[in-house]
Every structure is written in structure tokens, then in C-alpha cells.
Amino acid sequence: xxxxxxxxxxxxxxxxxxxxxxxxxxxxxxxxxxxxxxxxxxxxxxxxxxxxxxxxxxxxxxxxxxxxxxxxxxxxxxxxxxxxxxxxxxxxxxxxxxxxxxxxxxxxxxxxxxxxxxxxxxxxxxxxxxxxxxxxxxxxxxxxxxxxxxxxxxxxxxxxxxxxxxxxxxxxxxxxxxxxxxxxxxxxxxxxxxxxxxxxxxxxxxxxxxxxxxxxxxxxxxx
Length: 223
Description:
Blueprint: E1 2-6, E2 9-13, E3 18-23, E4 27-30, H1 38-47, E5 55-60, H2 65-68, E6 80-84, H3 88-92, H4 102-110, E7 121-124, E8 129-130, E9 133-137, E10 146-150, E11 155-159, E12 162-165, E13 168-171, H5 180-193, E14 199-202, H6 212-222
Parallel strand pairs: 4-5, 5-6, 6-7, 11-14
Antiparallel strand pairs: 1-2, 2-3, 3-4, 8-9, 9-10, 10-11, 12-13
Helix pairs in contact: 5-6
């Protein structure tokens, strides 16, 4: 149910989307799949040797039903959810995605599958730290998309900024992005600013255990 990527880093393959579990001194779930993945999220905790009560926080890379739908599995717990400031009102239900953007329309259609969580939602911005992770704002796929990079774990969670296909990383395409020009700028910015990392976990495709930052840099050469 979970696959080890490195010491204290696990991958949930949720059939079409990914989530990750990290123990950096505080047990952290990164992204939460869809509402249909609740049992797999809980079962994966146990498979990695933990219980639900051990979970300390959830890091969300962005608002999409296949990344936040499973948050309902943690209703009633004390787990704090961290999400990029521009996407936070969408997670809490305070605001709806705009109908003026094709991606916003897609998010609206998926809205019934992502109910607002009961847990506290903490907005994060560029440069914030959560445990060993530094937040990097990487808008484009969504306005509030963020990536989380832990230098001490040599691990980066890239959300849907990029996706893996055929062993290579590719930027988020137009059809599922708010702004592909912003996606490209965000990829360049992350390559320039983030420390090197080995493990690269993205929302879709097979994560990389080694050479993550080099594979991300390779995108810039092809832009």
C-alpha cells in the first residue's frame, strides 16, 4: 500500500494520483488524494508502522479534488492542514474557483467531491518553514500552488507543477493549468532557488528516488 522512497519517506500510489508520508521528527502527510482514498490513507499509515493518532500535520500542494478530497478522512483529529495562501480559501470553502478560467471551471465541477475539512487550515507563503520543509510558491497550475523541499531529507514534493511521463518530468499542461506561462516561470524559479534534492515526489507519475533536482533542471533546458 505504501512504497519506501528513502529513509522516513513513503509513497502512496493511489491509482491516478499520489500522496506521500514523511517522518522528519513529526509525521507528515503530503497531499490527500480523493474522497475515495480515505481507507488507503489510513491503511498506509499502519503499513508504514504508524497509527492515525501519530499524524501531526498535512501539507497540501494545491487545491484540486484529487489532492484535497481525502482530507475528510482526518475530520475530528487535531491535525493541522498547511496550504498555499492563495488556495487556502478554496480548501476551507470560503471561496469558489472562478468560472472565468477553464481550470477554475474544472475545479468547480469537482467541487462536490472535496468537502471543506474540519481541521484547522494554516496558509503558508514563500519562505515559510514547516518542520524540515521550506515552502516555495510555484503558481501556474493553480494560483496558490506550492512545493515543499526538505534539504535535510534531500526530498522535494512538487505537486502538479510537473508530472512524470516515460521517466522524464514535464510541466503541467495548459488543459489543467490556470496559466502555463506562470508554470514555466515557477519551474525556473524553483530550479534556481531550491537546494539540490534526490527524492522527487509529484502528484502524478512515478516518483524518483535519486537525481530529483537534476531531472527538474532538465525541464528548463527543454523550455
